[in-house]
Design brief:
seven-stranded mixed β-sheet; alpha/beta; seven-stranded parallel β-sheet; about 30% strand; 11 helices
């Protein structure tokens, strides 16, 4: 995973700069223009998450799917009457299209899609960024002064965690002192290789809010046993964007996200790898396959399960989201709901926003069962 394009400063647009073993393609020559009757552009539209998003979006809007190898998306495009074109984000060849909205389902490490969308006044949704990259992208978008909604929906599962947290806080009348999110990763899930991108962040400490104050924590620490959809699961800390945004957007003093696994052996292996320092001395590209092999073992299908606990005056409010179609579908659903929001003229305004700032998050929580997603309450 390309971590940060900040090392590329001083390189002219449209040139290639080799930094170590990384190659950055810098170009700002892409042109996206807004067409209210045009297609929704899904960048990475025939990948694992992109394909699931295409299935969800096709009944509602015309679609333009892009990726490195459009021939791989031809069958999916034919099935849904979509158009497929090549847009390789590592190739400096400029891309041009007139679209009604754009959503990124692949890594955009130099903000290429973001820049084109904001520059063209096109509504934009992103579901791919880890916290540090999202922070940079938010700053870049703000400087460009967006003329359309720019939704950073990169919280776990395409922003679903943030919307659920916002809905629970709304139920309580708007007050909460803490939000705890616990994810149960099903090792049998039909996940793509990009689904374990978070492995590349496990060697970096990160900042959270505790009691309203910033504190630095290490990933894979502070274990807890949490009941997630009837399964007692050992969960440990992981860096996710909602831990940055929820304290700011919803005034929550403490926000924590943890992850656990359906396989006890996977949990043991991951914690053992941390103990020997794999995620610190094995950070680079050379060790990527080793890091990801600890968790990447896609099966024939499994559940995506997330528990959200909100605490405050009056006790605890909880909800567990279970998607039997797995994490790719749940992430795509988060993206689909984001698209509906930025395309709703009554529910979106120009500028940067986040999933938890939906004008009616409770309606999103109520709508999840319509898409085959269970919402379990205690």
């Amino acid at each position: 995973m390309i971590e940060d394009a900040g090392d590329c400063r001083g390189v002219r647009a449209g040139t290639v700069n080799n930094i170590g073993q990384m190659t950055y393609i810098l170009t700002m020559a892409d042109t996206l223009t807004r067409d209210h009757e045009g297609p929704v552009l899904i960048v990475g539209g025939y990948g694992t998450v992109g394909s699931a998003l295409t299935e969800l979006a096709a009944p509602h809007w015309p679609l333009l799917l892009t990726g490195r190898n459009p021939e791989k998306g031809a069958a999916l495009a034919d099935k849904h009457g979509a158009t497929v074109r090549r847009w390789d984000l590592t190739d400096p060849a400029p891309f041009r299209a007139a679209v009604r909205a754009v959503i990124g389902t692949v890594n955009d490490p130099i903000d290429r899609v973001l820049t084109a969308a904001v520059g063209g006044g096109v509504p934009y949704v992103d579901i791919t960024r880890w916290t540090n990259r999202m922070t940079r992208a938010v700053a870049a978008a703000a400087v460009m002064r967006p003329r359309a909604p720019v939704l950073f929906s990169s919280a776990w599962m395409g922003g679903i965690t943030s919307v659920v947290a916002a809905a629970l806080i709304s139920e309580r009348g708007g007050g909460a002192t803490s939000v705890d999110i616990a994810v149960r990763w099903d090792m049998n899930d039909m996940a793509g290789i990009d689904s374990v991108d978070f492995m590349d962040r496990l060697g970096y400490d990160y900042e959270v809010r505790r009691g309203g104050l910033p504190v630095t924590v290490a990933p894979l620490t502070d274990p807890r046993i949490v009941n997630i959809a009837g399964s007692r699961t050992k969960v440990v800390r992981i860096d996710t964007p909602e831990q940055l945004t929820l304290p700011i957007t919803l005034d929550v003093g403490t926000v924590s996200t943890r992850i656990g696994f359906s396989s006890g052996a996977a949990t043991t292996a991951l914690l053992a790898a941390k103990k020997v320092g794999l995620f610190r001395w094995g950070k680079g590209d050379r060790w990527t396959s080793v890091r990801r092999s600890l968790l990447y073992s896609p099966g024939e299908g499994g559940n995506a399960e997330i528990r959200v606990d909100v605490d405050g005056e009056g006790g605890r409010t909880s909800a567990t989201v279970v998607d039997p179609r797995g994490q790719a579908h749940l992430t795509a659903l988060g993206g689909f709901l984001g698209l509906r929001r930025v395309l709703d003229p009554t529910g979106s305004e120009p500028g940067v926003t986040y999933p938890e700032l939906h004008p009616d998050p409770a309606s999103i929580l109520r709508s999840l069962p319509e898409h085959g997603v269970e919402v379990l309450r205690e």
